[in-house]
Amino acid sequence: MSHEAFPLDTDASNSVNASAKKARTTTILRLLQYSALRLLALFFTVAVGVYVTVLIANMGGYVDEIRRSQIREGVTMSVGLDPEFRKLPEETRNSIIEEKVRIAERRYGLDKPFIIRSFTYLKNALTLNLGFSESMSSDSGSRLVKNIILERLPSTLILFGSANLLLFFLSLSLGLSLSRHYGSFWDKVVLAMAPSSASPSWFYGLFLILLFAGLLGWLPFGGMVSAPPPENPIKYGLSLLRHMILPTLAMLISSIFMTIYSWRTFFLIYSSEDYVEMAKAKGLTNKMIERRYILRPTLPNIITNFALMLIVLWTGAIILETVFNWPGIGQLYFKAIGSFDIPVILANTVVYAYLLAITVFLLDFIYALVDPRVRVGEGSHN
Questions:
Q1: DSSP letters along 211-273, please?
Q2: Per the structure, how many domains does the chain have?
Q3: How far is CA 216 from CA 213, 219, 220, 221, 251, in A?
Q4: Same domain, 108 and 237
Q5: Distances (CA, A) of 314 to 126, 149, 200, 247, 364
Q6: Residue 33: domain span
Q7: Across the chain, what does the average pLDDT equal?
Q8: By the 8 A CB rule, do 151 and 139 touch?
Q9: What pTM was computed for the model?
Q10: What are 329-339's pLDDT values in tens digits?
Q11: By the 8 A CB rule, do 373 and 382 touch?
């Protein structure tokens, strides 16, 4: 009997290995299928969003009419300054003007219907063929949209990266602290101050400029560094920090109380769960309870907020950067909208859309890593 058991054990082991291999293969195929469908859906969403931006930026084609009027006015003025041109017969002058207008319109693609040009804009945007700006240039004189954006991006990342990281970690820690002291004096203060977040950061920025720059003269009105910029790296850094104080403070005042209140309420919900009360009854310390039973189940939400915060850094803040004359992406976007510079508008939009789509895609897998209840592609929690 003992000799006959060995083949049976071997067969059972082979069967288990085959089942495990089949399960791994099935899981890999399911993940690949889910990833492909998810990426396709996200790409379709990006394409729709970018095309809507094309239509809005062109005002349904009305911007083309504005551009044609500007071209005709510019050509008429330039040729009118030529004394020889004024000596020509009126019919010849009109013919020369029309020819120059046609050449200029062809250069901007205005000789094609707007519907065709809209899909050309869409294709170039989705393939990140950002092209040339129609009315703007970088400090070095380049009209490449890529160079214009890359020149402004560091300024936005420095200001909004510092302010948003400070806001995120400060509100997270204070929110967790307030959840331990529900109903305390500081909890009531935060609750009372939460409606102050209804006002945007630029609104507080105006008052801060009036107080600290206008009345007291302690801080600069705006800009990124003093003029002329200090050549010494240490003095340059100190000047940069001095110019960052007011816009950073404006963003913190605008968002800090509501963000703390949101985190505090979120942590309170998890603090009232039965398993938390059971852990307290077992004698676990408060730090251990927070780490195991409050922070761990809320980790997906914390990661989501942090990831989306990083993505928002790309856009900057249009009005805030304009108020503080901060040379970032937001101010660039504001100028592009004012001058109907469609390539720059589309470049900002499509890069943000791609970053957001990639973040949403990766978050699904990050959730599965930090929370074993999440199964990628199954759409359910086990």
A1: IIIIIS--S-SS-SS-SSPPSSHHHHHHHHHHHHHHHHHHHHHHHHHHHHHHHHHHHHHHHTS
A2: 2
A3: 6, 8, 10, 11, 21
A4: no
A5: 17, 10, 18, 17, 22
A6: 2-126
A7: 81
A8: yes
A9: 0.73
A10: 888 888 888 88
A11: yes
